[in-house]
Amino acid sequence: MAMAWRQIITNTKRAASIPTQQAISTPGFSRFFSKSSPRYLVKVGIPEFLNGIGKGVEAHVAKLESEIGDFHKLLVTRTLKLKKLGIPCQQRKLILQYAHKYRVGLWRPRAEPVKAK
């Protein structure tokens, strides 16, 4: 047991003695720590959010814009409010799941690519 602790202590001392600049300048190492530049920037409102989810949820854009109005209110809306608006169960679940992912920062709706004519 004492031998294991001794190895842990010496390994942490070695890791602490490595200069941080050397660790960062290692090729391919910095990509794990740098923030990636967002590829798709879009101003998110209720229509963009629901279109980003897809799966038939975008049919409720007009209803949610008239009743809820603000995108930030949609992010904190509960399932009972959506049920009273007449949104089916599976689509309520999708809206709530993606709202949670958006709040946490795990998902953003993509901007539609410009189509060449």
Automatic annotation (TrEMBL):
Boundaries of every Small ribosomal subunit protein mS41 SAM domain copy: 46-105
Record InterPro entries: SAM_Ribosomal_mS41
Chain ranges passing through the membrane: none
This protein's name: Small ribosomal subunit protein mS41 SAM domain-containing protein
Species this protein is from: Salix udensis
